[in-house]
Structures are given as C-alpha cells and as structure tokens.
Amino acid sequence: MPIDKALFSRLTLLLIGIGFAALLAAGAGLVWQVETTRNYASAVSSAQEVRVTTLRALSLLQDAEIGQRGFLLTGEESYLAPYHAAVEALPQAMARLAKLVLEDGGRPGPIAELRELATAKLAELARTIALQRAGERDQALAITRSADGRSSMDTLREMVAGVEARSAMRLAARSAGLEANGRALLIGAALAFVLMLAVTVGSAILAVRYTRELEQAQAEVTAANAGLEARVAERTAALAAVNEEVQRFAYIVSHDLRAPLVNVMGFTAELEAAVAPLSALLAAAEAEAPGLVTAEARAAVAEDLPEAIGFIRSSTERMDRLINAILRLSREGRRALRPEPVALDRLFEGIAASLRHQLDAAGASLEIAPGLPTIRSDRLALEQLFGNLIDNAVKYLDPARPGRITILARRLAGRVRIEVADNGRGIDPRDHARVFELFRRSGRQDQPGEGIGLAHVRALARRLGGEVTLESAPGAGSRFQVILPLEPPPMPTPSPEESPR
C-alpha cells in the first residue's frame, strides 16, 4: 500500500534508532572488552610477580641450607655468608609473597603454612650451626642427614610448587573468562552487524517505495545518494580516527600513568620531609613527659614510617623507570629510520669512548678487530643496539678474572655478522630465549636494570632487517651475534603495533 510522508518519517526514525542502538551496543562492547583485556594483563603481571617472589623465597631457603652445609663440612664461618643473608631477607620475601597472593585472589592458609615450615627449617639450620660451634659436629651432621632434615626441604619445594600451580590455575581461569568474553563480544558484534544490515535494507526498501510515489523521484534519489555519500565519508573518517587512537593506545596508557605516579612521588617527598619534625616533636614530648611516649610510638616514628616511605619511594622510582623505558621504546619505534653509510670501526670506537668510565671502573678491556666493514643503515639505531650489548657485557663481567670484551665482524652474502663476545658470568641455556623478552632477566639480580635492554636490541635488529642470536653458558661468557644487511631493506615508518613495547 502507499506510504504517506508521516508514516515514512516514523519508520525512518524507528530504523535510525534501532541502528544507533546497535552501533552504541557494539561500541560499548568494544570498551568493555578493552577494559577486560587490561584487567587480564594486570592479572598476568600479578601471577608473574607471585611466581618470581615464590622462587625468590625458595632460593633464599636453599642459600641458607647451602651456607649451613658448607659451615658443617669446613667449620669456617665464611661459609655462613649465604645463610646470614637468607635469614635477613627471607621475612621480607615471605611478607611480600603473602601480600601478592592475597592481591592475586589466593588464600592466606597455604602461605601461612609455608611461612611456618620455612621458620622451622631455619630453626633446624640454626640448631645445627650452634652444635657445630659447640664442637658437636657429628650430632649436627646427623640432624642434617636425617629423614626429617631432607623431607622438610622437599615439603617446602612442594608447597612452593603448589603456590605457583594455584596462581597458574587462577590465571588460566581468567584467560578462559577473557576468551568467553571475546566470543560473547564477537557474537554481539555479529548480531549488531546483522541488525544494522537489516536496518539498512529496510531503510532502502522504504526509500525506494516512497520515492516511487513522489513526483520528483529523480531529484530526491540524487539528494539521498549525496547524503549517503556524506555519511559514508564521515563514518570512514571516524573509523580512521578511532584506528589511529587504537594504534597509539600503548603510548597513551604509558604516558597517562605518569600523572598519578608523579603525585605519589610528590606526596612521598612530603612524608619524608615530615619525618624529621615529627621525630623532633616526639623527642621533645619524651623529654617533657616520658610517660606519654610509648615504645610503639617511638618505633613507628623511628623505624616503621621511614621504612614504609623508603619502600614507597623505591617502588615508585622503579615504576617511573619502567614507564620511561616503555615511552622511550614507543618513541623509538615511531622514529623513521634514516639509512646512511656507517663505518663500523668508528661506530664502535665512539661507543667505547662513551663507556670508557665503566670499562675502567670494571678493570675491563674492549678489543675491536681491525678491518670492520662499512654498511648502510641507521646510525642512531646501530649505536643504541651495540651500546646496549657492550653495556650489558660490562655490567655482567666476572669479578674473579680480568674482563675482556671483543668485537668481531665477518662479511656474508650481502650481509655482515657482528659478534660482541665477553668472558663474563654467562647465561644459562634455558634462559637464552627469555632474556630477549621485555622485562625478563636471567641470573643474579645484583645489577640495576628493568629487563628492557636486550628486548630493545632484538627489536632494533629486526627493524634494521637483521636478527640477533646468543651463545652462552654459565662461567664461559656470552657471545651475541648480530646479522645485518649491507644495504638497508625498505624501511617504512612503523605503526604503533609494530613498535617495541
């Protein structure tokens, strides 16, 4: 039947409302999924912290046992250094583990049981050490060799494995929830698409039927097409803007984290400044009326408050370093590469000059093989790549022997292989892959760093059209091989998704 103007208007408004509702639902679903993904990323970080702290606690217990056994076997007090260090650091590690497990959604019971067993183990070690010092070496060794002495450590390992397993299970459950949310969002988006398609088809049918009944059909169709093209252009521009925002997501998140962090650091400084007058006030009160000042108040002002402030400051400083590193990597990933001829011998001489102070302080030598080739590449990227490798080599030299770092290069077919080798501590083969991952480190954590350098090295090598590999073993040093083209590949400016994060 014919469609009058009022009915056509009502139907059009209805269809537009349905389409807008579907589009709004799809947008809300996208925001919901982004927030869910961020929460999942936080859960992954929390689970990783639980794992690292759990392994740290177990490592401290093992260090304590190693020190005790060395002392029982030799009777020399120097062997107790790992034991004393572990006894001092273990309470803080256990407290942090309990806090992380609770924040991760775990139960406090297993952690309390683990703490009790760890305390009992340290008491057993202290008892054997006391017997050794008293000349009862045989009795101390008998306790160490007993089934109880062995089983307690095995039980600790099992409990540590249980804590890790439960954390992994919680993470797996969150991962399953994330996948379910993704499927739900996909189904919802498909339904929204079908609904919008139906709205579009219905609108087109109504428009065609209505325009056939009008005297100026051709003029109205032309106007409708013009309006449709304008809406398509607007939506295309809007989608392009949204896509650009999504591409800058990692950069924006890292940048916006700085504002609350700066506030926390500022208030921490104010708390630090307040400690001195508070201490003076407490001292004056104690001098005037000793009975008014309790031991708890003295401990809170003299010990607890400075300790808490120190912990907050160290944590915020570490977070500030991480955010700065992420921003630096993001900016570097956005920078357009500028290939130019680079003489590798002069490049490494410049890097050596910039690191001369660190080399001299470590008592290390840097040997650059003669005849290094010239390649066409981005000079700044090369300086950052090899500067990171040499800086790492200096930091992780073995103090037991003079440090030696060598730079070699060999031409291949259209490529060059550059080796940075050292005689430092070395890296366990099991960690060869993980050291190139962001925020991952290997071996003793006795050097400053956030686990970003080697991840940046690999990202730079790949942007330059090459690759980096590692050969290393504990005590045998490390050899990093960087293979780069002699001539640069096409180097488009990367999008944020391609930038290292």
Automatic annotation (TrEMBL):
Specify residue ranges for compositional bias: Pro residues.
486-501
- Name the Pfam families for this protein: CHASE3, HATPase_c, HisKA
Domain Histidine kinase, by residue range, is 252-488
Give the Gene Ontology MF terms in alphabetical order: phosphorelay response regulator activity; phosphorelay sensor kinase activity; protein kinase activator activity
Any coiled-coil regions, as ranges: none
Which chemical reaction does it catalyze?
ATP + protein L-histidine = ADP + protein N-phospho-L-histidine
Q: Does the keyword Kinase apply?
A: yes
- Transferase as a keyword? yes
Membrane-spanning regions, if any?
184-208
Keyword set for this entry? Kinase, Membrane, Phosphoprotein, Transferase, Transmembrane, Transmembrane helix
EC number(s) reported in the record: 2.7.13.3
Q: Which domain of life is it from?
A: Bacteria
InterPro entries for this protein: BphY/WalK/GraS-like, CHASE3, HATPase_C_sf, HATPase_dom, His_kinase_dom, HisK_dim/P_dom, HisK_dim/P_sf, Sig_transdc_His_kin-like_C
Q: Name one GO biological process term.
A: osmosensory signaling via phosphorelay pathway
Q: Which parts of the sequence are annotated with region: Disordered?
A: 482-501
- Record PANTHER family: BACTERIOPHYTOCHROME, TWO-COMPONENT HISTIDINE KINASE
- Its name, as the record gives it, is histidine kinase
Biological source species: Siccirubricoccus deserti
